[in-house]
Amino acid sequence: MIAADVFVYVGALEEVFRHVARVLPAGGSFCFTLEEAQDGEDLALRSSLRYAHSEGYVRRLAAAHGLRVDAIERSPVREEQRQPIPGLFARMSKP
Prior knowledge:
Blueprint: E1 2-3, H1 14-23, E2 29-36, E3 43-45, E4 51-53, H2 55-64, E5 68-80, E6 83-93
Parallel strand pairs: 1-2, 2-4
Antiparallel strand pairs: 2-6, 3-4, 5-6
């Protein structure tokens, strides 16, 4: 399953993770991108009207839904007004 530049338009991801865990077959991968929230924030709605999520938040969701975090990498997801927007690139799997 791939969700690239999707979750910036979705707030809380609990239901997403619940459904992914339900339909993802054993050995399947779940890959997605996020705008990265600032320290101490699990979820934030930015002035751009896009949501940002923290690494800790998605790690907790993965653990709660039986998904293994294979990798989370930091890299800009895009530029706005020539400024890089910090992001997370995540790869998870179902054992």
